[in-house]
Amino acid sequence: MELIDHLMLGFGTALGWKNLVFCFVGALLGTLIGVLPGVGPLVTIAMLLPFTYTLGPTTAMIMLAGIFYGAQYGGSTTAILMRMPGEATSIMTSLDGYQMARQGKGGTALAVAAIGSFIAGTLATLVIAVLGPSLGRLAIAFGPPEYFALMVLGILSCLLFTGSSPVNGVAAILLGIGLAVIGVDQTTGALRYTFGLPELTDGIGFVPLAIGMFGLLEVAKTLTDPEPMEPVTEEIGGLVLNQEEWKRSLPAILRGTVIGTVLGVLPGGGLITSPFASYIVEKKLARDPSRFGRGAIEGVAGPESANNAAAQTSFIPLLSLGIPSNAVMALMIGALMVQGITPGPTTFSSKPDLFWGLIASMWIGNLMLVILNLPLVGMWAKLARMPYRWLLPIIVLCSAVGAYSVSNATFDVYATAVFGVLGYLLWKIRCDATPLVMAYVLGGPLEQNLRASLSIAGGSPTVFVSRPISAVLLGLAVLLLLAPMFKLLVRKRDSASQAHV
Q1: For the whole model, what pTM was predicted?
Q2: Do 57 and 351 contact (CB within 8 A), yes or no?
Q3: Are 231 and 385 in contact (CB under 8 A)?
Q4: What are the respective helix, strand and coil percentages of the chain, to the nearest 5?
Q5: pLDDT tens, 272-309?
Q6: What is the full DSSP assignment across 95-144?
């Protein structure tokens, strides 16, 4: 009964005209950037952050979430028609989807991808509605030491999905914390690391940092490493599945939904690994595994369902604990914090309209995406063939305008360019920028909770290990820190063994 009351609140919020319009805008933009290879939700959300300031936090999150899961739908179009995944989560779809398109079954592949995504997104959202509040009830047990430990865990969790070395990841975290402490000390009022520049008194803006590190970086990566495209020239074909195709697809969709729902909750790249896991499961269960890679419809239905389910459930750790499960979630935490909201255990009780409005909007957004993707598949197919170099000037222009518009300050445009260069240099040394951005976002609250915790304990650091929840969270953080180093040691040992043989 309580769940129904909450869902009624959520649908009442999501069906307001403003939220409904921006839900559609998010779904449309998400599909568009998913179709266009090289853009992606990370870049788009970074560029749209200044615009979200003019919206309320609920409307902003509904639109940004629509972009995120909409990109999962759109990414399948280029994967199927051009064998070029618009998103990393569509890589497995390209294997059999592209072969189906070459056989004149591109319409069938696109249809099963959209249907599977809709079913998975709907069921996974139900899981969020059931599990999210249970985690949120942990709020009553949280004080400054627990929040400090939770933020340490959130920052270090980025090390799992960066792909860079642990040393580079830790260095990026320290650099992010260093950037976060620039400006006025909130406790003493003293200036820190401003180097006499009055523009740094209020610290470094999140928008220039995010746009430079993600938006301009993608432009630089494309200019230095362009990839050729190989579009399908055959007819797309019909969108209606026959009885045999339904029989093969439905079990794969349900299995992909379960796999994506479980893996999406886990920090550390569950969104990306879920379609790979689904594809492996489908191939293992198939009576004739040799069909995979040559146009098996289960090879499209399973991974597409898995990546959409994972995209939905990756919001659970964000909304209930304030922990990002991927880079896009880290940006969304930043988007909420610039609106004065710190996502975490209190989100459910302090912002019920945001929590339940976002959940309800996911059902509405998934329905919009089916309508957008199936009837308009011809238009998306034409857009998918647009040369990416045409978009580069638009991305640069939008980045500069977006950075300037936050404070009408030219300094922010220069800062965006500097962070673009920094992001490129980090990319060249294979150091992912996500830990840096996450450490910057949580650096301020981390310092405040550290000071409050030490104040409560009379300056004794044992407060973090004497309280059970903070001790467990810090223990998990230590494991996260040691896990990449352990993997590195195992890899070096295996390499040494092979060299010896």
Answers
A1: 0.69
A2: yes
A3: yes
A4: 75, 0, 20
A5: 667 877 887 888 888 888 888 888 898 888 888 888 88
A6: HHHHHHHHTT-HHHHHHHHHHHHHHHHHHHHHHHHHHHHHHHGGGGG--H
